[in-house]
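Deviation from plan, reported transparently: 2-phosphoglycolic acid complex.
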Amino acid sequence: MGTVTQGGSRQGRTPLIAGNWKMNLDYQQAIALVQKLDWALKDAKHDASSVEVAVFPPFTDLRSVQTLISADKIEFSLGAQDLSVHDSGAYTGEISGQFLKKLDCGYVLIGHSERRQYHDEGDDVVAAKVKAAIKHGLVPVICVGETAEDLETHGASAVPVAQLKTALTDVAAGTEVVVAYEPVWAIGSGQAATPEQAQQVCEKLRAVVAEALGADAAAATRILYGGSVAAGNIAGFMREPDVDGALVGGASLKVDDFAAIIRYQKHVGV
Ligand code: PGA
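Because the crystal trials were delayed, the predicted structure below was used instead.
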C-alpha cells in the first residue's frame, strides 16, 4: 500500500513512535526521562514534525508529565495504559476515560497482551474499552497479536485479524484509531518479528480497518509494530509500507535508545 516519502510520511500518515513504560518509573523518574529525551532530540536538531512521539506512563505519572509537556512546550503526545469501561461510579481502582481526557491524554492503550494475559481481558472487554475511549475523545491504540502457540497452530495473522475485527465492532466509519500489531512471542523477548512478517500482518490489519471503518479511514490509520523494537531494528520496520511506527516497551525507558528509535529516518536508508 503506502509509499515512504522524504518527510517520512506514507500516504499522508505521520509515523508514530510510542513508548509504553508499563509499570516502570515513578513520577520523579518520569519527569527526568521526559526532560532528558527532549534535550537529546533538541541537541540532535530532530525535526519534531517528521514523526509523532507519544509516551504512555503509569497513571500516577500522568499529571506530572502533562504539566512538564505543557510548561516546556515539549512536542510529545500523552497516553494512558488502560481505562475503565465505565464513566464514573462505584468501581474501586478504575480510571475513567473522562479523567484521562482532562489530563490532555490523546491516546489510550487497549488490549495490550499483558492486560489480556494477567487481567483476563477478552475481546469483549477490549471492544467495550474501545467504545469508552472513543466516547471520551481518546484515540484507542488497539493492541493485537498472536502467541507462539497461535503462530504454530493458525499462522501469524488469523488471531490478530480476529481480535481487531471484534475490537472494531460497531465503531463508526471514519473513526480515528491506531492499531498496534504485537506478536506476544516478540514482546520483551529480544526476538523481534522480521520486517517482512510485520508487513504481512499489518497489511491484513489495514484491510480489516477498511472493512470496518471505510477505505479513507484505513488509508489514514497508523498501524504500529511492537515487540522487541530497538535502535538497531527500527529502520527495517519503517521501510515497510504498512508499518507506520512502533510501540516500544523496554527501549523506551532508555533515553539514548528511544531517541535513536525516534530518529530512525537518519538511518532508515530509503
Ligand atoms: P518490548 O515491549 O518493546 O519491551 O518488547 C513492547 C510492548 O509490550 O508494547
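DSSP finds eleven helices and eight strands in the chain. We consider this an acceptable substitute for the interim report.
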